[in-house]
């Protein structure tokens, strides 16, 4: 997370600044925290969008397999799949104009979360080259994707507890501040009014965001391995 290094360094540097400089330091800490939080939120949204796209890939493969198994021609099956999910529209158009369908599928697989379309592209290409039934090949791809989705759901369930624990740990300092204030201390005044307190605030926020980012990075690597 690029914002954390300057955030922590600036927080440590404010030990030597005067009172007006503390407001600048607090603003810098707030901006750094907001930037880190926004980056984590964008990453979360991208992960959710990629998971949704992965489910649409499975649904499209199942639809193609069903259409082909009842005797629909490949062009019509692709057209209907493109109508149900517009991302596949260019693939249906490639078939209509006689272009390379596997290549169009691989290009579409570049969409975040749509990487499984490469399996469909490989099955389509094998069917073209060997004459093997396309319906059977697509059905096997759909079966493999269903099994992979089942595994991903199990993994997501396991990772959900880790993410929840990380968020809980990140929120514990707020509870500690409340307990310190209730015990007669003034931790809030120290954190916002003393140079060393501002440095501690910057370092604490930075490490908290870094921990959340690290959990998301581990979860992303696990998702890629599934």
Your description of this structure?
- With 226 residues, this protein is an all-alpha fold.
- It is 84% helix and 0% strand.
- The chain has 9 helices and no strands.
- The chain has helices at residues 4-13, 19-69, 74-84, 89-96, 101-108, 117-130, 134-182, 187-193, 195-225.
- Helix 2 (19-69) runs antiparallel to helix 3, helix 3 (74-84) packs antiparallel against helix 4 (89-96) and helix 6 (117-130) packs antiparallel against helix 7 (134-182).
- It is elongated, with a radius of gyration of 26 Å.
- The model is unreliable at 11-16 (pLDDT under 50).
H/E topology pattern: HHHHHHHHH
User: How much helicity do the residues have?
Assistant: over 70%
Mean pLDDT: 81
- Calculate Rg over CA atoms: 26 Å
Total count of helical runs of at least 4 residues: 9
How many β strands by DSSP? 0
First-residue to last-residue Cα separation: 25 Å
Oligomeric state of the chains in view = single chain
Largest sheet, in brief, is:
none
Uncertain ranges: 11-16
Strand content: under 5%
The computed structural class is: mainly alpha
* Form type: elongated
């Amino acid at each position: 997370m690029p914002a954390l290094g300057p955030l922590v360094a600036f927080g440590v540097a404010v030990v030597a600044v005067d009172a007006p400089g503390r407001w600048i330091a607090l603003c810098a800490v707030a901006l750094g925290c907001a930037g880190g939080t926004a980056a984590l939120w964008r990453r979360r949204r991208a992960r959710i969008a990629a998971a949704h796209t992965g489910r649409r890939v499975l649904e499209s493969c199942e639809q193609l397999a069903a259409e082909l198994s009842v005797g629909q021609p490949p062009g019509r099956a692709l057209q209907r799949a493109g109508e149900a999910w517009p991302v596949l529209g260019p693939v249906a158009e490639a078939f209509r104009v006689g272009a390379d369908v596997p290549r169009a599928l691989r290009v579409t697989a570049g969409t975040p979360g749509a990487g499984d379309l490469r399996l469909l592209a490989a099955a389509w290409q094998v069917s073209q080259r060997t004459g093997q039934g396309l319906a059977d090949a697509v059905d096997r791809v759909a079966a493999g994707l269903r099994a992979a989705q089942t595994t991903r759901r199990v993994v997501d369930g396991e990772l959900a507890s880790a993410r929840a624990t990380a968020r809980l740990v990140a929120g514990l300092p707020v509870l500690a501040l409340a307990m310190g204030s209730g015990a007669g201390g003034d931790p809030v005044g120290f954190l916002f009014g003393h140079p060393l307190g501002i440095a501690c605030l910057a370092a604490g926020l930075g490490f908290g965001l870094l921990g959340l980012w690290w959990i998301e990075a581990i979860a992303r690597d696990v998702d890629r391995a599934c």
